[in-house]
Amino acid sequence: MDRNIFLTTLAAAVMGILGLWLLLSLTPPVDPPGPPRLPWDVTRSPAGQTQVFGLTLGESRLADLRALLDNQGKLSLFLAADGEITLEAFFDDIILSGIRADWVASLQLPAGQRDALYQRGLRISSLGDGARKVTLASDDAASMTGTPLRGLTYLPWKRLEPRDIAGNFGQPAERFTEKSGVQHWLYAERGMDIARDPQGAVVIQYLNPADFQIARARLLEIETNSTIDQPEAPLQLR
To answer: pLDDT tens, 119-141?
Structure first.
């Protein structure tokens, strides 16, 4: 099972470790040229791919994300309990367009290439959910710069109230509440899931259409006793 399209697991993992939240730095870095890159400005390419922050999922590369964030990030390989291997790049404490957030990018690699990276990995550490984290060999890490982005996860440091989400992102097509109390605002037309815990910590995930539908189905399957709410208000695109 793909770790990066498993929304509920990812949301639970990150929400447990996020601490104090800040919105702005006293001296924020200079943004790249062009219009602001904001998390609610999500569109589709002519081919139907999700576009956000000036990036196109499935087309933009790790090098493009590094250039946008002016940060090399940290690459890690993950082996899930079911044997699925995924490659992620983590970017810590980034300020873009005045908003402070952590970022996680999942990279699009063939299964055979992921297996080879795992076999050449330098160190393996166990995670609490039964998964394993693998440190890439230095040559392998250096060769990933041209790898396409499969999905993006955006973790703003500021807590958000439901009115903040609705005001900036519009009303979702669906709202889904896990048994844990985490609520998902699902925007299928934009390939976006906003997961919010009862304390206001937020995780935003961006996926291309096929991955979004798989993730949604898995989320519903896991949380069989949870509820889906379909708001009467239409989806608002900004």
So the answer is: 898 888 877 777 888 889 999 99
Q: Which two tokens stand for residue 153?
A: 């996860």
Cα 194 to chain centroid distance, Å, stands at 10
Residue ranges in 143-222 assigned as alpha helix (H): 162-169, 209-222
pLDDT of 163 reads 94
What strand order describes the sheet that includes 202-207? 123-126, 132-135, 74-79, 85-96, 99-107, 149-156, 202-207, 192-196, 183-187, 174-177, 227-229
CA pair distance 166, 150, nearest whole angstrom: 26
Cβ atoms 182, 93 nearer than 8 A:
no
* Cβ atoms 86, 115 nearer than 8 A: no
Instruction: Please give the Cα distance from 60 to 74 (Å, whole number).
Output: 18
The string of pLDDT tens digits covering residues 129-176 is 778 888 899 999 999 999 999 999 999 999 999 999 999 999 999 998
Cβ-Cβ contacts under 8 Å for 136 (sequence gap 6 or more) = 75, 76, 77, 117, 120, 121, 122, 144
Residue 20 DSSP code: S
Strand-strand pairing, 42-44 and 50-52: antiparallel
Please report, for residues 62, 83, 104, 172, the alpha-carbon distance to residue 223 in angstroms, rounded to integers and kept in the order given. 33, 22, 24, 19
